[in-house]
Amino acid sequence: MEVEGSSKKMIATQEEMVEAKVPMGYRDQCAHLLIPLNKCRHAEFYLPWKCEAERHVYEKCEYELVMERMLKMQKIREEEAKLKQSPKQPIPLIPKTANA
């Protein structure tokens, strides 16, 4: 499944995310990494020093998504700034008439 506006593809399917009970807010391009992380957390009773490798990989994926969105927004702002700076035709104070 391709996500519009992102370079990463959705790897986990909707069925897999529903089966793993992934909350709606976490169903992004990194959900395929969250599923094994949550399984590890459950198996290890959420001990903070366990599942570090899985957590690191998941957080890195989320960080890359955030950075990608920030860069995209920065490009949009730069394009808007260029459009605002483009020279506009001044509105004449005295309109031209058909006879002039």
UniProtKB/TrEMBL annotation:
<dbReference type="Pfam" id="PF05676">
    <property type="entry name" value="NDUF_B7"/>
</dbReference>
<dbReference type="GO" id="GO:0005743">
    <property type="term" value="C:mitochondrial inner membrane"/>
</dbReference>
<dbReference type="InterPro" id="IPR008698">
    <property type="entry name" value="NDUB7"/>
</dbReference>
<keyword id="KW-0496">Mitochondrion</keyword>
<keyword id="KW-1015">Disulfide bond</keyword>
<keyword id="KW-0813">Transport</keyword>
<feature type="region of interest" description="Disordered">
    <location>
        <begin position="81"/>
        <end position="100"/>
    </location>
</feature>
<keyword id="KW-0679">Respiratory chain</keyword>
<dbReference type="GO" id="GO:0005758">
    <property type="term" value="C:mitochondrial intermembrane space"/>
</dbReference>
<comment type="function">
    <text>Accessory subunit of the mitochondrial membrane respiratory chain NADH dehydrogenase (Complex I), that is believed not to be involved in catalysis. Complex I functions in the transfer of electrons from NADH to the respiratory chain. The immediate electron acceptor for the enzyme is believed to be ubiquinone.</text>
</comment>
<keyword id="KW-0249">Electron transport</keyword>
<keyword id="KW-0472">Membrane</keyword>
<comment type="similarity">
    <text>Belongs to the complex I NDUFB7 subunit family.</text>
</comment>
<keyword id="KW-0999">Mitochondrion inner membrane</keyword>
<protein>
    <recommendedName>
        <fullName>NADH dehydrogenase [ubiquinone] 1 beta subcomplex subunit 7</fullName>
    </recommendedName>
</protein>
